[in-house]
Amino acid sequence: MEKWRAADRLLKFSSRFASAVNWNNSCKSKQGKYFYSVATTVHRNPLFSSISPDDISYFKTILGERGVVQDALALDAANTDWMGKYRGSSKLLLQPKNTEEVSQILKYCNSRCLAVVPQGGNTGLVGGSVPVFDEVIINVGLMRNILSFDKVIVSGVLVCEAGCILENLISFLDDEGFIMPLDLGAKGSCQIGGNVSTNAGGLRLLRYGSLHGSVLGLEAVLANGTVLDMLGTLRKDNTGYDLKHLFIGSEGSLGIVTKVSILTPPKLSSVNIAFLACEDYTSCQKLLLEAKKKLGGILSAFEFLDSDAMSLVLKHLDGVRNPLPPSIHNFYILIETTGSNETFDKENLEAFLLHSVESGLVANGVLAQDINQASSFWHIREVITMHPHFVVSSKSPILLWRVLWNWELTLGVYLKLS
Amino acid sequence: MEKWRAADRLLKFSSRFASAVNWNNSCKSKQGKYFYSVATTVHRNPLFSSISPDDISYFKTILGERGVVQDALALDAANTDWMGKYRGSSKLLLQPKNTEEVSQILKYCNSRCLAVVPQGGNTGLVGGSVPVFDEVIINVGLMRNILSFDKVIVSGVLVCEAGCILENLISFLDDEGFIMPLDLGAKGSCQIGGNVSTNAGGLRLLRYGSLHGSVLGLEAVLANGTVLDMLGTLRKDNTGYDLKHLFIGSEGSLGIVTKVSILTPPKLSSVNIAFLACEDYTSCQKLLLEAKKKLGGILSAFEFLDSDAMSLVLKHLDGVRNPLPPSIHNFYILIETTGSNETFDKENLEAFLLHSVESGLVANGVLAQDINQASSFWHIREVITMHPHFVVSSKSPILLWRVLWNWELTLGVYLKLS
């Protein structure tokens, strides 16, 4: 399809879908426990149909019995977001096995005016993957094939279906001597299609940049069932408009991502991790700039918590211990370097830390001595939002917000907290 | 403007504009000296109006006398592409000084159905910046203000007008201790707006990725004069659709980019360059993968020429000499590392080169001993397409194509030449 026409159609055909989804999300926000703007009641849009027995029968002809889920337990899980903050009342969960099935489902839902909500690993923190009312849930979890990995011409381009679990892709690439350009605490459950649709940043954004840079191509199905093939594998394709970027971060509102082509960097052998404490926010910012300059290309992560976040993690989460002496500091930083020379990388990081302590930027710090210690450092960062108990037990929503803000900061957004 | 509606309007309002520009480009290609598909004659689309004295008067009321150029010499330069391959016959060159003027020009041209062609530094190699017939040329070269550079919160975000010359931005950032994430042979003339509109890759793509990753925001004017403000400075903004990506690489066909916000990395002190020779293409590919693994994060450029390209450069371009002994090799590679530790980086590159020679991947090679030698290595790469004489004098267009293909390869596209 000629690309600008495709864009035009994409936005026309998806408008109803988009408005439905956006409306759902906004509604969800307003129902959210931790939403602080004026609450308003949102009613189900009467323009959307309700599921009829005929719809069920039709979906069974497309997906078979197993692909049409009406079981109460399964529906309950699919209706609830990962933090237990939002709950929908969908009566139907569809599990397509390939792009064609996704296309047939959407085409039919569009013709019947049935609202849908795309769902991947359902690990989102803002309720975008669960229904508000009785939308049809389309979960692409069964689409989990790795289609190709190109190491012959050393491009490191991985092409896979949207339902692939991030951790499985990481393991697959590890065996090939490559890594995924993104990593998340939710890697064990989240799916690459969802990562792309939400433009997940994750722990490697500082080093490998955003998905707009590393996703080379996509296949997506529009609301009317049209399959948009943008599954290129070139690092630079300037033919026509680069429509795939509209789908990166659009939360499924323009269509459902079904296949992903992503550029993966080679795995480097030498990894070093330090956990530091700073007394003020300005020092954290200066430390980041210094790290970028002094650690050059080996800096692979710079993560950030404030003392409230740290206290909450230590108080409420099992198996988390403070690597530093138990005095209270205002801010904590995790620094990771990834390079190709064990000896030099370690010396380089040690010299940087020594200089940072001497210059007063860092109040205290410790360097991981082995892989277990390294994992325990990362564990602190990864579990911040990984434990529902943490959210539920949090006495102060403000603290949670700060955790999330800090989390954004670690993604390189540099939000001004003051 | 609510973003998805903006996208819808963008594509609707720009359709006429887009079709005009695309049609022009395709026409240009078919007229191009080095285009080998079946030639077809393309006639001016009669739907477009011709410029009248009233139009000129109107433009003068917007831009003043100086912004409305009808001088034959200036028009001749603006009608001709940088390689002298394509020539238009525009009678009018407009030079707006700000976004509002661009908006007024486009709104008027749209209402009068006057075809336009946006022009930046006019350094493109495919004639995209010159008219085919009598389109109005809109050159943003007078919009050259640096609007802000944020180093206070260490984000390194530069915001500037589209007409800023790339080399001027590089110099500005150099004084601030930062660098542009892209660098081109044409840096002395090309403009950042044009770089973004053509999604220029350049010499630093390998290290800093594509503009889809480093451009944080844009301001653009649509064909109907609507100003689309997408000039964000956050590294990750998932609110609504990321429309700016439609403008990156769309060659001005959706609108004219007027402002750019771009993420710039800190400048690193240690730079080392080597010029190598390989006997076969597979070795070049293996060498790239090895470089990515062994040089880790300090690898900043990996450039490629084949023997034909090298011979043409040595034969036709002044001040270019072969750094290697004058025996003929099939392929040549330029490798650059950029890091923060002079001693280690040099040792690391030397060790890598030694290993590559021993393993037979590299036939011969030399390491730049000083800044002059480094510049002379880069000169070979940069002048490939910088000298019109080179193109004109090329006896074999096939060779030129191969040069361009190789150029693409160096951009990390890994085109299969076989």
Automatic annotation (TrEMBL), chains A, B:
Q: Which Pfam families match?
A: FAD-oxidase_C, FAD_binding_4
Q: Which residues form the FAD-binding PCMH-type domain?
A: 86-267
Its domain of life reads Eukaryota
Checking InterPro entries in the record gives:
FAD-bd_oxidored_4_C, FAD-bd_PCMH, FAD-bd_PCMH-like_sf, FAD-bd_PCMH_sub1, FAD-bd_PCMH_sub2, FAD-linked_Oxase-like_C, FAD-oxidored/transferase_4, Oxid_FAD_bind_N
Q: Which UniProt keywords apply?
A: FAD, Flavoprotein, Oxidoreductase
Which cofactor is essential here?
Answer: FAD
UniProt cross-references to PANTHER family, sorted A to Z: D-2-HYDROXYGLUTARATE DEHYDROGENASE, MITOCHONDRIAL
Listed name of the protein: D-2-hydroxyglutarate dehydrogenase, mitochondrial-like isoform X7
User: Which gene does this sequence derive from?
Assistant: LOC113702246
